[in-house]
Amino acid sequence: MKAIRSMVLVSSDPVSIERGAKEVYQALQREIKEFDLENEISLTMVGDVGRHEASPLVIIYPEAVIYGPVKEGDVHFLVEEHLYKGRIAAGLQAPVRELSGKIAWLSARKGTLPAEQRIVLERAGIIDPDSIDDYIIHDGYQALAKALTQMNPEQIFDTLEKAGLRGRGGAGFPTGTKWRFVKKASGTKKYVICNADESEPGTFKDRLILEGDPHAIIEALAIAAYAVGADEGYIYIRGEYTLAQQRLHRAIEQAREIGFLGENIFGTEFKFDLHIHSGAGAYICGEETALIESIEGKRGEPRARPPYPTTNGLWDKPTLVNNVETLANVGPILRNGAQWYRSFGTPSSPGTKVYTILGKTNVTGLIEVPMGITLREVIAIYGKGIKDEKPFKLAQTGGSSGSIIPASLQDTPMDFDSFAKAGVALGSGALLICDEDTCVVDLAKVLLNFFRKESCGKCTPCRIGNQRAYEILTNISEGTGALSDLTDLALLSDNLYQLSNCGLGQTAGAPIRDILNYFRAEVEAHIRLKVCPTGVCPMSGKRI
Amino acid sequence: MTTIKSLEDLKKAREEALRKRDAKVASGTAQVIVGMGTCGIAAGARDTMKAILDTIEKDGLNGILVTQTGCIGLCEKEPIVQVIIGDQPKVTYGKVDSEVAKKILKDHVINGKPVADHVIQM
Ligand SMILES: Cc1cc2nc3c(=O)[nH]c(=O)nc-3n(C[C@H](O)[C@H](O)[C@H](O)COP(=O)(O)O)c2cc1C
Ligand code: SF4
Ligand code: FES
To answer: Which of A236, A529, B23, B96 is deepest in the core (most CB within 10 A)?
Structure first.
């Protein structure tokens, strides 16, 4: 990577273009060259960053200063003042508040860029996943050595709690606290499990870690086992991930050979070994108690809770279940300390989050960024704007179990607490970006179709509620809906949330709640006018 | 492989692995690294890998180390190939099909001239 010290972004929505954004961009290119700053400064045209009243905007990170409206003639002054002399170019600043005012992580990371911050993906795509030597060169197994020879379990829990690590599997439960629960649970036989089922549509962050850096998960599981007092672990991995399975098998063999798994690890009393358990394609088996049932050889149906797996898990023994990305954070935290970890992200959600960007952005793919970045920034900076300059309509987070985020919430920092406060959920990290061509009824129908098929059928609200909600949405999309359907949908959504046994049913109603909340007029148009405003729904007049 | 029983052993193993790697760099070896995640493979990374290995064998090229790595998440640019020659900085290429791979071997690895069209700025 080049050592970039500043990142300059130019807005390129239609309004900006009309007001000369392209000319400003070219002038910036010229001036940056003129001042010989090419190797220190990156210049990017980004999509719509809003604030049209002051466009075209020039945004300079890491200071997050916004200039606008910038004219071609201003550029020389701007480059000389801000980029060359390093002070804010007086008089050019946009008369608007700071872009998404509360970007706490930016001020926490003064002097660095809102560029990607790779902690869990540090080695993926760099090292040879089949080579334990490569892993060791890149500081591999040092965290395990440190944990076993210099730390007691209490210190490990403490470090994780101070670091503020929270589960990346969806619910955001504090990891150190969960580990402590398992340690405290009575019994001598305990288990640790890595949840690598990753079956949310559009989510592939765990696969990247497993395929690119399998030893990181083995190391973290060994640390977890030592801390909670387990001697056996499982990696429950979805059946479709054949390459990741091969690489894990090879990595486990290597780790056994070199003595990181087995007896007397690092010359201590600690012993630990690992099994790989392949899933068979059921979404519900990602839910931790269904996953445990599945390892036990039973149908993958969630258990009633409490008791929780931390006291009564696999074979009724105390069991720790953590997501792949959660575990991938453990090694770096133990190696570098809680303080270091807290320098990324927001105070309530430290660290980074891996997101998969899908849908209508110009660039799709996978990023790891500090917690607290906003949706607007993800779309503009990493997605390089929406295709064909269309307006952003909504984002669906999590793949299926998540929320529908309307454009009005795109400046909410993406961290557990800010999202919870706004009444939405982060989910697994998939960000499906939709433009004006997406119909909310159709989107909800697709999601409910997924839930009705993936419901395990154990409890009635979920088994029947999802089916019925899907039928009602289908009627609305056929132009045969009635206004009373909306009352029924709201009731179903509420019942799913209140009465379901597990997280699948509890979140299945969220899309319905969200579209009625944020897009009611569009839904009603399907019923009152028999028109799908985006032209997506068939409206063919059949009622089921 | 010797077993590691202490932090000291781990340090030694790391130094040993580093030494092996540095020896390769010092000998002027070129390293060609192909991104082989499921995604890279779906985009054709196996064909790219095969073309590289075939060309090396057919043309009797020496001193080229071909390895694999996982995915870096640049979906749009797969298949991705990275080239490191001696102690020069790493060059990352995107959309490397068999033909481009052959060109990279000939122009960059053998003749030292990167194939500008396919370089990704990181
Ligand atoms: C329907 C359903 C599917 C889930 N799928 C996954 C999954 O694929 N991977 C995962 O890590 N967690 C999944 N979870 C969450 C797990 O139940 C559990 O909370 C998580 O593995 C805990 O790990 P963490 O504390 O590290 O986040 C799912 C939950 C539900 C309700
Ligand atoms: S909520 Fe749905 S998936 Fe969960 S136990 Fe009940 S029927 Fe099964
Ligand atoms: S995840 Fe590997 S290319 Fe997208």
So the answer is: B96
Quick check: B70 and A124 CB within 8 A?
A: yes
Omega of the bond prior to A306 within 30 degrees of 0, cis?
yes
In short, whether A498's Cβ falls inside 6 Å of ligand 2 is no
For residue range A194-238, list pLDDT tens digits in order. 999 999 998 999 999 999 999 999 999 999 999 999 999 999 999
Could you check whether the bond before residue B79 is cis, i.e. omega within 30 degrees of 0?
yes
Residue A107 scores a pLDDT above 70: no
Asked whether A455 lines ligand 2 (CB < 6 A), one says yes
Predicted pLDDT at B24: 73
How many CB pairs (< 8 A) connect A and B? 107
Q: What's the CATH number for A440-528?
A: 1.20.1440.230
Does A1 score more than 50 pLDDT? no
Q: Given the structure tokens 């009622």, which residue do they identify?
A: A543
Domains of chain B: residue spans and CATH: 28-89+98-118 (3.40.30.10)
Q: Higher confidence at residue A64 or residue A415? A: A415
Half-sphere exposure (CA, 13 Å, Cβ side) for A401? 24
Q: Which CATH architecture has domain A352-435?
A: Roll (3.10)
CA–CA separation, A482 and A476 (whole Å): 8
Burial of A269 (0-12, 13-18, 19+ CB in 10 A): exposed
Helix (H) or strand (E) holding B9, with range, is helix B7-26
pTM of the model: 0.83
Sheet holding A404-406, edge to edge: A365-370, A352-359, A430-435, A392-397, A404-406
Rounded distance between C-alpha atoms, residue A174 and residue A341, angstroms: 14
CATH 3.40.50.2300 fits A6-97, yes or no: no
Mean pLDDT of A252-277: 97
Question: pLDDT band at A245, cuts 50/70/90?
Answer: very high
Residues with CB under 6 A from ligand 1: A 167-171, 173, 195, 197-199, 284, 286-288, 321-323, 326, 401, 502-504
> Is A125 in contact with B35 (Cβ distance < 8 A)?
yes
For range B88-109, the mean pLDDT: 94
Q: What is the pLDDT of residue A106?
A: 32
Helix (H) or strand (E) holding A512: helix A510-518
Tell me: pLDDT of A265 over 80.
Answer: yes
Cα–Cα distance, A215 to A213 (Å, whole number): 6
pLDDT at A113 over 60: no
Q: Quote the CA–CA distance of A221 and A320 in Å, as a whole number.
A: 10
From chain A, pick out residues whose CB is under 8 angstroms from the CB of B95. none
Tell me where in chain A the CATH 3.40.50.11540 domain(s) lie: 132-340
- Which residues lie below 8 Å from residue A357, measured CB to CB, with a gap of 6+? A363, A364, A365, A366, A367, A378, A382, A383, A431, A433
Task: Give the residue with greater pLDDT, A533 vs A85.
Answer: A533
